Amino acid sequence: MAGPRPELEAWQDPTAAPLVEINGVTKTFGSHYAVDDVSLTIFPGEFFSLLGASGCGKSTLLRVLAGFERPDKGRVLIGGEDVTDLPPYRRPVNMMFQSYALFPHLTVADNVAFGLRQERIPRGEIRQRVEDMLKLVRLNEFARRKPDQLSGGQRQRVALARSLVKHPKLLLLDEPLGALDRKLREHTQFELVNIQERLGITFIMVTHDQEEAMTMSTRMAVMNEGRIRQIGTPSEIYEFPSNRFVAGFIGAVNQFEGRVVEQQDDLLLVHVDDSEGDAAELRVRSSQAVAPGTPVVVAVRPEKVRIGTTEPPAGDNRLHGRIEEIAYLGDVSIYHVRVPDGSLIEAQLTNRARRAAAPLTWGDEAWLGWNSEDAVALLE
Length: 380
Prior knowledge:
Layout: E1 20-29, E2 32-42, E3 47-51, H1 58-66, E4 73-78, E5 81-82, E6 93-96, H2 108-118, H3 123-136, H4 152-164, E7 170-174, H5 182-199, E8 202-207, H6 210-216, E9 219-224, E10 227-232, H7 234-239, H8 244-249, E11 254-264, E12 267-273, E13 279-285, E14 295-300, E15 306-308, E16 317-328, E17 332-338, E18 344-350, E19 365-370, E20 375-378
Parallel strand pairs: 3-8, 3-9, 6-7, 7-8
Antiparallel strand pairs: 1-2, 1-4, 4-5, 9-10, 11-12, 11-14, 12-13, 14-20, 15-19, 16-17, 16-19, 17-18
């Protein structure tokens, strides 16, 4: 979603200094590990997302960054300064809450100006900064309105302006789009990214919405049970998941359990047994050496799976089955095909041409095929 970026990103540059360093942070509540030995570096100008299901520890980690929770172990550094023991008001950080937490008795302009007045900034500077920020979020015409006179999307932008007007080094966003309907949420995603890129402020967002994280992030961390399971760009995490949890959590995926029987250079040959004892041989590219007999999971995304009535060419991965379910979504149709091992395999067919009837229907025999480079081998 973001515009053109330099050839070498900050996280790829060994000389780049991170803005945020989280070193071995652990936070418990009683016997429960909300955050379990997490280490993470985030660089200036990033839009970084912490993604995971409810209870995975992402919000607790955000509160540790903000200073609302103190870790049991580990350190937090911002701009090279250890802020682990500093209260929230002494950190170069601002936080935008899911509820927006606007003052109902104050106007839009006064809500935005509130933090500046608390810091006793001169009136003229407050007026100018509030005016500039309202222009940035396109709310300058609503300066005199109260929050209850605004739509949900407008209130969200007021909360954003209030968070940014103090020029923090770091802005933390806790499910910032959760209260918006789907259409408004999709529109606001673009607005947030554009504002972040114009200001150059580092954003760290907590979300459980995969699409939101994939759309907005320069990088993201997938969390589960208090730990980070993978860090990477959206395309790296989607196309090259490092484990079964990430593969299954991000988008839809077909997974085949089997064992490596041979490795030819970077090509793994994997045998998958079906319910009748027959073995299907799957081919998958892997840059790491894997010993014969090693259990692996071959994962392939539904959009990579071709479906049709003719047998795929030799060298492709191929399975034969019967169509049990079809979901027509307009731009794509999703097919669930029962294959010999008893599992349902999902394939997507792009509806490029207009037609009233689908080329394949319920109960049809179908062939599934995909290239070896379109799948990944997962060892954990």
